[in-house]
Amino acid sequence: MAELTFERILQWKLMPRLMMLAITVMCFNVVGWYTTLDNPTIEQSGFCSVVFGCFSACFAVWLGKSEDK
Q1: Per residue in 3-34, pLDDT tens?
Q2: Does 39 score more than 50 pLDDT?
Q3: Nearest CA to 27 among 63, 57, 6?
Q4: What burial class does residue 9 get, using C-beta atoms within 10 Å of its C-beta: 0-12 exposed, 13-18 middle, 19+ buried?
Q5: What is the full DSSP assignment across 51-68?
Q6: CB neighbourhood size of 37 (10 A)
Q7: Is the N or the C terminus of the chain less surrounded, counting Cβ atoms within 10 Å?
């Protein structure tokens, strides 16, 4: 029974999808925070850039992942 459940989790690719959901939510939260700032500093702009860079990299890796058969 445990093997069947683990195989389903691997087959449905739940972890990569949950990770993409998590980073997407984080990216939207950072955008909301950044747009509420009156006068953003260099550090705040850098933080926003890093978050967007991570989002872009994760999305590229997720889409570029090839299936081994």
Answers
A1: 667 777 777 778 788 888 999 999 999 999 99
A2: yes
A3: 57
A4: exposed
A5: HHHHHHHHHHHHHHPPPP
A6: 11
A7: C
CA 44/CA 8 separation, integer angstroms? 41
CA distance 12 to 15: 9
Q: What angle do CA 60, 22, 28 make, to 5 degrees?
A: 85
- With tokens 């093997």, the residue in question is 3
Instruction: Show the tokens assigned to 5.
Output: 């459940």
Output the DSSP codes for 11-41: HHTHHHHHHHHHHHHHHHHHHHHHHT-SS--
